[in-house]
Amino acid sequence: MEKRKFDVAIIGAGGAGMRAALQLSTAGYKVAVLSKVFPTRSHTVAAQGGITAALGNVTEDNWLWHMYDTVKGSDYLGDQDAIEYMCRMGPQVVYEMEHFGLPFSRLENGKIYQRPFGGQSRNFGGDQATRTCAAADRTGHAMLHTLYQRNIQAKTHFFVEFLAIDLVRDAEGRVLGVVALDMEKGEPLLIEARATLLATGGAGRIFQASTNAFINTGDGLGMASRAGIPLEDMEFWQFHPTGVMGAGVLISEGVRGEGGYLVNGAGERFMERYAPHARDLAGRDVVARAIAIEIHEGRGCGPHKDHVLLKLDHIGRDEILDKLPGIREIALKFAHVDPLEAPIPVVPTAHYMMGGIPTHYRGQVVVPARTGPEEAVPGLYAIGECACVSVHGANRLGGNSLLDLLVFGQAAAEHIVEFLKENPTSPPIPKEGPDLALARLARWDRREGTERVADVYRDMQGIMQSHCGVFRRAEVLEEGIAKLEEARQRLDRAAIDDHSKVFNTARVEALELENLMEVAFATIRSAAARTESRGAHARDDYPERDDRNWLKHTLAHGDGTIDYKPVRLKPLTVPSFPPKTRTY
Amino acid sequence: MRFSIYRFDPDADASPYMKDYDLALEAGDMMLLDALILIKAQDDSLSLRKSCREGVCGSDAMNINGKNGLACITPLSSLKEPIELRPLPGLPVIRDLVVDMEPFFKQYRSIKPYLINNDPPPETERLQSPQERAELDGLYECILCACCTTSCPSFWWNPDKFVGPAGLLQAWRFIADTRDQATSERLDDLEDPYRLFRCHGIMNCVDACPKGLNPTEAIGKIKGMMVRRTV
Ligand SMILES: Cc1cc2nc3c(=O)[nH]c(=O)nc-3n(C[C@H](O)[C@H](O)[C@H](O)COP(=O)(O)OP(=O)(O)OC[C@H]3O[C@@H](n4cnc5c(N)ncnc54)[C@H](O)[C@@H]3O)c2cc1C
Ligand code: SF4
Ligand code: SF4
Ligand code: FES
């Protein structure tokens, strides 16, 4: 097997991976960035609405208010040390992106344009704030391209179309690198690194209807889980209120930020009933549930009463063309309506994974320890959507993910620099280090099989969609677990027809499905175990939040067992925001 | 519906061939990519790239009935049967619909696609008026799909010397940015019989761009600026 050696291996070239790479390359380290797609094809490119930071360009603002909103938005499950760090660093990382060249939209005075987003307030729950910085409705695209461009300048070493298969660990549990598949050649490559950073993004493809790209298959979570690391808070999935009916493509919350609103079949602006104060800009979990209830109770739109409408024509032609041009393009193509004239049919659609690989606020992966509450895995870091820091807790606020990529991309890079200084050499890779990865690859060389990957893939998505959606209850979840178990056994019996070495996408998809399975199991098991409703996790049979028993993070192990760990209620420097009833 | 798809696996095939597939379906609201996924469920050996399925990542550019485009935003109903699919022209084929994009990206990297500004950064943002920022509209949205460049005859003949429409569009994106200070270096770099001046204004690129961008106009602006600085 071919071998390469770097100071740091970064798996993932989305916003998170490339922000960290930039920092490390600029600091003079040898950095390998692996990505299964060309960097600018990473899913960060699809982010529309913007990045939240308390710049105060439009209305007076303060990072503490942002922190309060984020803690409340998380339904008090977020770790307040990490939330403080993120909100405090927000303005700095956004200005830095501007200096890097990100083409933000501008206000008349030349400053960065900001728009209101859901769950944002001034003065700890007061009036709506205007906090989300935007490049029209293509903020993720602008950010991802800018980061790639800076990495070209910094001469970061990219391994494009290399699929990471598994981590390499030694007997002491140190992470020493990763085995990847060179997709073009079909050969494995061992990358030896003193530090390895997972930045593999989300896993929204566990659901049938998802705003996520095909590549969002939770590979980093699968790798972590197979390496014995539990996954945190996997029951918390954000269903975005406004995915295009049928297609699943996202319509940004920025539309409601610019003044758009939702109406039901009776033409009623129903959010006024659910969130009298914030209305359409309440937390996403609140809006998604409201839509689900409207549809469930027969107040949906269309012949099948199976969606609601997002009205925005009143915003005005010029504003739409200037601030929401991408949304118009999507509506024309995927909903066949021109939002300048007609409303867009939308439904709640799986969107964002709040859970992930457990880390502390400087990016190091942490696991339950033999002695203390938790300890770091030496040499392993995780950032971005695949990680759970946890700043989003039980419900993420819009615009906080792009922020999380930058803040923790930078923080992890800084910690890695310290780690590299303390660890000038890496221990040798044990002979059997790459075995796990090579066995996974060899498994798909098998020619006999009775099942097809595409069928199992589709069925898994159907199971998750109908058994672990917006509303959950015990019987439905348990039945889902049984069905998923069956699907996993079918996957064991599956084979692919394509056995070519060259750019074999059938093999890639089979390997991705194995990762999705890990994620789906962790999700549905964690959901069945949590007998309360909090943020995006809504149980019909346990409709209340239960802080006495459940103010804690779930840790789902690959073997099916579940642990918990306390929420960090203590911020770094400011007083804590204690749990309160959450209303908008 | 009938599809005729270019197939070539260097591991197994001596030469490329066209393979026919039939799908029993109504075009309805489906996009071409949806149909390709159904075909791939039948024959998993068909290789193509895909990711966002909404026209923003640039993965699934291909030659569709003779014209370059993105499968994910090409409605099936807009296509005449049999639907003929080939890899993007002018780039080496790796397999089936997957081409080696490196010659394209190499040209992109050659124009120094990053903001150059040597002043110490201020504590907050650099200011830019909405009008100045509007100069970047129609430029920064490029998704690097290569539909334009691989439809350009000048690029086919000189892929190693001519920057091509996508790269030149980005060169103009940085020249047009009021925050960038490297205009004259950027112009010097393009003042070359090949890098810029191989463009003969054939406009294939404009026609091919699935994002509605206009590389020819950007190229014209760069040329105009060069003329102005020599007089
Ligand atoms: C449609 C949409 C719109 C959104 N809009 C917003 C918004 O406006 N504001 C906001 O804050 N958030 C938004 N979000 C959320 C946010 O965009 C994502 O959470 C974020 O971009 C994820 O970034 P990332 O860097 O973690 O991962 P990604 O950008 O998803 O990148 C993952 C990277 O990992 C690589 N990778 C994965 N697996 C492997 C493997 N096995 N081997 C090698 N490489 C691998 C991929 O190639 C890719 O480079 C949106 C999300 C969606 C889906
Ligand atoms: S206008 Fe120039 S760049 Fe565009 S296709 Fe013609 S020759 Fe190529
Ligand atoms: S200019 Fe258009 S066609 Fe060319 S690479 Fe960019 S998006 Fe694609
Ligand atoms: S799949 Fe992303 S552009 Fe078509």
Task: Describe the structure in your own words.
The complex is a heterodimer of chains A (584) and B (231). Helix content of chain A is 34%, strand content 19%. The model of chain A has no long low-confidence stretch (mean pLDDT 96). Chain A contains 16 helices and 22 strands. With 231 residues, chain B is α+β, with helices and mostly antiparallel strands. In chain B, the strands form two sheets. Chain B has a five-stranded mixed sheet with strand order 2-1-5-3-4, with no helix packed on it. In chain B, strands 6-7 form a two-stranded antiparallel sheet. In chain B, a hairpin with a 2-residue loop joins strand 6 and strand 7 (98-99). Classes of the chains: A alpha/beta (584), B alpha+beta (231). At the A-B interface, helix 3, helix 4, helix 10, helix 13 and helix 15 of A face helix 3 of B. The complex binds flavin-adenine dinucleotide (FAD), iron/sulfur cluster (SF4) (2 copies) and FE2/S2 (inorganic) cluster (FES).
